[in-house]
Amino acid sequence: MSAGGDRRPIIVKRKRIQKGGHHGGSWKIAYADFMTALMALFLVLWILSTVNESELKSIAEYFRTPLAVALTNGDKSSASTSAIPGGGPDPSASKGEVHRIDMRQQTRPSDEQRMLRALRDRLSSVIRNDPQLRQLQSQLRMDFSPEGLRVQIVDSDQRPMFELGSDRLEPYMVKILHKIAPVLNEMPNLISISGHTDALPYAGGEKGYSNWELSADRANASRRELIAGGLSPDKLLRVAGMGSRVTLPGTDPTDAVNRRISIVVLDNRASRAIEQRDESALPNPLDEQGRPDAGGEIPTPAIAVPGDDATPAVPRSPDGQTPAVPATTGVPGNDAAPAVPTPSGDQAATPGGQTPAAPAATATPAGGAQS
Question: What is the dotted CATH code of the domain comprising 110-201+209-275?
Answer without folding.
Answer: 3.30.1330.60
